[in-house]
Specification:
elongated; about 10% strand; cobalamin; two-stranded parallel sheet; alpha+beta; 16 helices; cobalamin binding; oxidoreductase; 10 strands; about 350 residues; 4-stranded antiparallel sheet; single chain
Length: about 350
């Protein structure tokens, strides 16, 4: 058996050398979080995300998901570059498209999975074969609870993991291991009485501290939902065409956070400055080419056009905007046609 305390420190050091900003280790007890998840599911607040209810209790019981698991190595990788003011400016300019900051660059799944695999290989090189499994949103894992227990940050009122020094602009990943290495101290909460994230949510999706009704959340509506966006939320979506960052942009812990600029996550295809009209003109071939290796692929081309149609309906009315909408009035997709018709009617009502 290797020197376990020394190995725990080595794992953290190797992780930092591979480009993770923080590495922590936790046990596998998640009973309180299991209860929170079950109540959320029973209330139907996961919407159409049926995958959240699959796999029984494996999501909150790591050893059932990966037999033999004794510890979880939790890592964070920053993606925010500190350009919050530019994000606010984009949201204020209705003719521009707002894409959630995490989706502007390369798909984080591949970036993090490759580095987690390298970390696993490094452990094996040091101690020999061991049981492990790497996760990056690839299976039912309560990653935020594990990150909190590993000391990476607390779960804020907006349900994001928040770190006192790094804010919340980061991705999470895990390695389930069968090694009984020492664990880290869980992070304590520091939101206090602040409710800025709850107050600013455009659709009031944060219905209680750390309780998101996904059916109201713009990230869910523009990414996970595959059908029609409920009309009651369309105006509030504004120019957000893929995800929403308002609850992070307003968070005081992000204002003075120290951030690391990861080149893989820098904006591609000018998505941080593109106009709605420009993006609405993409053909399906262009969409597939320009979103290759991007998280935006998740919404699909139909969802992409649906979202932009809504944003165009909310944009300042102009000949260019109306022309763009008219160009897809007879689109092959019934979903797109429906949202274009709404956008044209909504734009007219603003006269």
């Amino acid at each position: 058996m290797p020197n376990l305390p020394a190995l725990a420190e080595d794992i953290k050091r190797w992780g930092r050398e591979l480009g993770f900003q923080q590495v922590g280790i936790t046990g596998i007890e998640l009973a309180p979080d299991e209860g929170h998840l079950q109540d959320w599911l029973e209330q139907g607040q996961h919407g159409e995300m049926d995958y959240m209810a699959r796999h029984g209790d494996k999501r909150s019981r790591p050893a059932e998901l990966q037999p033999g698991t004794l510890r979880v190595v939790s890592v964070r990788m920053d993606y925010g570059t500190g350009e919050d003011e530019e994000a606010w400016r984009t949201l204020a300019q209705g003719e521009r498209a707002y894409v959630a900051r995490y989706a502007l660059g390369r798909d984080y799944h591949k970036v993090m999975r490759n580095r987690l695999q390298k970390l696993s290989d490094r452990i094996a090189d040091a101690i020999g074969p061991f049981g492990y499994r790497v996760f990056v949103d690839s299976a039912p894992v309560l990653e935020r609870a594990l990150a909190r227990n590993a000391g990476l940050g607390w779960i804020g009122k907006n349900a994001c993991v928040i770190n006192r020094n790094a804010g919340s602009w980061f991705f999470l990943g895990e390695i389930f291991i069968d090694l009984p290495v020492p664990v880290d101290t869980p992070a304590s909460a520091h939101c206090g009485t602040c409710t800025r994230c709850i107050d600013i949510c455009p659709t009031q999706a944060i219905i209680a501290p750390n309780r998101i009704d996904a059916r109201r959340c713009i990230s869910y509506l523009t990414i996970e939902l595959k059908g029609s966006i409920p009309e009651e939320f369309r105006a509030a979506i504004g120019n957000r065409i893929f995800g929403c960052d308002d609850c992070q942009l307003i968070c005081p812990w992000n204002k003075f956070a120290t951030r690391f600029d990861e080149p893989d996550f820098r904006a591609r295809n000018d998505l941080d400055r593109a106009t709605l009209v420009e993006l609405f003109a993409w053909t399906e071939t262009e969409f597939l080419q320009r979103t290759e290796g991007s998280a935006i692929r998740r919404t699909g081309y139909e969802g992409w056009l649906r979202n932009i149609a809504v944003a165009l309906g909310n944009a300042p009315r102009s000949a260019e905007v109306l022309s763009a909408l008219e160009s897809r009035r007879e689109d092959a997709s019934e979903i797109v046609r429906e949202h274009v018709a709404w956008a044209l009617a909504h734009s007219t009502q603003k006269d």
